[in-house]
From TrEMBL:
Keywords, ordered alphabetically: Membrane, Transmembrane, Transmembrane helix
Listed Pfam families: DUF308
Keyword Transmembrane listed: yes
Lineage: Bacteria, Pseudomonadati, Pseudomonadota, Alphaproteobacteria, Rhodobacterales
Residue ranges crossing the lipid bilayer per the database entry: 5-23, 29-49, 61-79, 85-106, 115-138, 144-167
PANTHER family: PROTEIN HDED (PTHR34989)
Matches recorded under InterPro entries: Acid_resist_chaperone_HdeD, DUF308_memb
Source organism, top-level taxon: Bacteria
Identification of the protein by name: Acid-resistance membrane protein
Organism: Rhodovulum viride
Amino acid sequence: MRNWLIYTLIGVVLLIGGIVALANPFAATIAATQIVGIVFLLAGLIQMITVMRGGPDSHRWLNGFVGILFLLAGLSILINPLVGAAWMTLLLGLLFVVMGAMRLMLSFTFRDTGLFWLLLLTGAASILIGVLIFSNFFAAATTLLGLLVGLELLLDGIGLMAFGIAARRPRHVETPA
């Protein structure tokens, strides 16, 4: 199978996955939350294995503590994915507000350049998104992650399909005379 076809097929699969996620953002949110829980659980297990296999050093207790935190976070998310989705939505909302505020403050250091308005507008937009998340937190907690996953899958699918189609076309190479 040619590489262009593989890229195109992966793009189609991602596009379909994005459409499915956007059609049911609640299910996509739960799925994304469970994946995060599994990743935390695996990270905690690997951290604990490295602590057990490692020799005595000053960071062993700290690494063990971090491993236990990862294990507990992963188990907590897997046991109750809605609570995990709420925590991740809270963190996303805070991230939007903080990053927006930082961009707003940064914009004033570029007051005399073309970046001023771009930073000012994107900072204000980020803060607005954060405020929207917090204004209807329950709806955001049950759908936001799924919508973001769906949008990302959709865009990645379109990008890979375009790349695959572009890679299919033969390139015109000029030979020296």
